[in-house]
Amino acid sequence: MNVNKILFFLPFCWCAVEAQVVSNTGVITINPKTTMSIVSDFDNKSNGTLWNDGELSLLGHFNNDGLVTFSPTIKDGNTRFDGNSKQVITGTEIPEFQNIMFNNSAAQPAIELHNEINISGTADFAQGIVNNQDFGGMVVFEENGNHVHTNTSSFATGEVTKKGGTSFTFPVGAGDHFRHSEITGSKDASNVFLANYFTKNSNPSWPHSKKIEEIDVIDDREYWTLEKKGGKGDVMLTLSWDESSTTPGDIANAEEENLHIVRWSTEKNMWVDEGGVVDVSNKTVSTPVSVSGYGVFTLAKVFAFLPCKLIVYNAVSPNGDGMNDYFRVEGLNACSISHNSVQIFNRWGVMVYEESGYGESGKLFRGYSNKLPNKLLPAGTYFYIINMSYDAGGKSQSHKKSGYLYLN
Question: Which Pfam families match (predicted)?
Fold first, then answer.
């Protein structure tokens, strides 16, 4: 069936086109509050235009060699992949979707992505794994793109791209494992980040024997990639774990302060420590500051060299009531530390406080930034890093402890 021109503009109408293949060589415009359903395969030819500001339900395959787009001032355009058998997305041109829903009940992965798709609004992973890893496709989220309802049976397998400077959770996984990674906002609108996840041992390509001495055991069942392809802003990274499926027990069950993110450094040709702030309830580990490079990341257990125990009180309420008025760290002097420093960063990875010899001569964090003189910081979640140096039998040792700091 060839479609020369179909214009749907009546509010609340339901319109269906059914044939073995619907081939568009003209213009299809779906106006707001209008629904169109195509039960068969849809082929948008090189001279075809599909303009969707309403609701389009696709039950078959989708090919685009022309123009698929929407009105940027209208936020309601939604394209649904509603099949109950495998759906294949192909084409020589990139379709632009305002919103998209993957809602396919077939055996997973139910959606094969052979080309790039761009998403400016929300991707609803209601049901269906999108497999672009095996077919050369790409899921691209624009500056304000986001997603909802990702889970172990609905995510993207393969590279996912995020454009812009906003924070983002990459909906990546492999097989039946949803293992997202997250980046903080960089405030650089020109940034472009690519992320992926693999249930493979990184050791054959990036030997685990090549590591800095602080790293004990490296995850040998999975790894993530994060590449920066554009812009100058850097980000903090968060990875997830799942001890019931992919993450080795000696990694997942490590003490909180010993569970870190590590990265393969191409410059040093070894694994390096990017630090770790653990959120047990959400089973995530975050770098306390922006990553020092990009490429291959995974989880690791690091050695705890410190010969004593530090107690960190990570809630600060600078209201003058005598309770939690400052950032309190017990054990600095008891550990016979020769030198220490405290650094505090906001959620963007910007350092707002730094002090050497913390705790000496009244050097305490009381909620004020010493990078912006006499500025009381807003309430929220921050990250701290405590750097320590001490003498261990005549040998100088260093230790770094990081975590969340809550300012009320």
Answer: CHU_C
